[in-house]
Amino acid sequence: MINIVVAGFKGKMGLTATKMVIKNEKFTLVGVFDPHSVEKNLNEISEFSNTDVRVFQDKEDLVKEVQADVWIDFTIPAVAFQNTYFALEHGIRPVVGTTGFTESEVKEVQKLAQEKRLGGLIAPNFAIGAVLMMEFAAKASKYFPDVEITEMHHDNKLDAPSGTAIKTAEMIFAERGYHAQGNPEEKETIKGARGADYEGMKIHSVRLPGLVAHQQVQFGSVGEGLLIRHDSFDRSSFMTGVALGCEKVMSLNEIAYGLENLL
Ligand SMILES: NC(=O)C1=CN([C@@H]2O[C@H](COP(=O)(O)OP(=O)(O)OC[C@H]3O[C@@H](n4cnc5c(N)ncnc54)[C@H](O)[C@@H]3O)[C@@H](O)[C@H]2O)C=CC1
Ligand SMILES: O=C(O)C1=N[C@H](C(=O)O)C[C@H](O)C1
After folding, report:
1. Are residues 118 and 195 in the same domain?
2. Degrees, nearest 5: CA angle 93-35-14
3. Residue-by-residue DSSP string for 87-117
4. Pairing of the two strands 201-207 and 196-198
5. Which of 150, 139, 151 is nearest to 218 (CA)?
6. What local confidence, expressed as pLDDT, does residue 248 receive?
7. Taking the model in full, what pTM does it have?
8. Is the beta carbon of 122 within 6 A of some atom in ligand 2?
9. What φ, ψ does residue 137 adopt, rounded to 5°?
């Protein structure tokens, strides 16, 4: 049995992950944490009325009172790094979906995990289809170096571009390197019209009510085009990946960056 805590359990992803952990026979939910919660026990929330699990508003109290193997994190970009560091310092393996990590923050927690010989996972996207989209896009960029990424999300999202778009761009860059795109003379008449620039490729972020998480990677070449698209219509799409991560980190002694490394 793997003992799990969920950080950010009051949020959209935290709630979905909490339900997944409760349902999965290999997992035991030993605590949930969210500074914006008011409950003392999960059973005070009607949909969890049969689940006797402690609720923590402070992570220091959580580590004093429960023994956890895995820390699932779906919080906010501003605290994800410190939460991951905190989990490792307390011997808990992080499985992190929260976005907003800088490259140096990923390296820093990877170093700590190696020192402590603890497994972990930071996955910008836990949906299997999204991982395939990123891998297909990286492969295509070898033959189609001209590419633009458009990610589309619900309008409550805090960060732009999305973690998935950044990871996609990193994977494309690893395959094709820097490549200047578009007309070198082009001028934006409205600032931002061409989107963000990552090593020559453009990233566009759409935020609209009704959307969940969607991304398309569009390639153009001489006389042809290629479009690779992934849609998460529901947050359950991420749960196979989260469950897989929770199992796999138990036998790792380093932090993987990207679910593709565990598939
Ligand atoms: N890797 C993946 O597959 C996915 C990643 N995400 C990412 O997960 C994160 C959460 O997304 P949502 O659930 O949609 O956001 P949300 O806004 O619904 O939930 C965030 C939760 O974090 C809590 N929180 C705020 N400060 C905290 C702190 N200091 N410690 C612990 N919890 C704290 C809030 O109270 C809230 O309940 C975002 O960064 C999002 O981009 C979202 C979907 C999939
Ligand atoms: O905020 C979200 O919703 C999502 N965030 C992740 C990201 O930034 O890529 C993963 C997914 O796109 C949903």
Report:
1. no
2. 55
3. HHHTT-EEEE------HHHHHHHHHHHHHHT
4. antiparallel
5. 150
6. 98
7. 0.96
8. no
9. -65, -40
Same domain, 221 and 169: yes
d(CA 230, CA 129): 6
Residue with tokens 């949906």: 127
- The DSSP element (H or E) to which 171 belongs, if any, is helix 163-176
N-to-C CA span, the chain:
21
Q: Which residues line ligand 1 (CB under 6 A)?
A: 7-8, 10-14, 33-36, 74-77, 79, 97-99, 123-126, 163, 238
CA–CA separation, 48 and 44 (whole Å): 7
Reported ipTM exceeds the 0.90 cut: yes
What's the domain range around 40?
A: 2-122+236-262
Q: Do residues 90 and 61 lie in contact, with contact meaning Cβ atoms separated by under 8 Å?
A: no
Closest ligand 1 atom to 126 CA: 3
The active-site residue, picked from 19, 59, 153, 230, is 153
State in Å: Cα 5 to ligand 2 middle. Answer: 21
- Ligand 2 centroid–CA 223 distance in Å is 33
Number of domains the chain contains:
2
For 122-177, write each residue's pLDDT tens digit: 999 999 999 999 999 999 999 999 999 999 999 999 999 999 999 999 999 999 99
16 touches ligand 2 (CB under 6 Å): no
Statement to judge: residues 22 and 151 lie in one domain: no
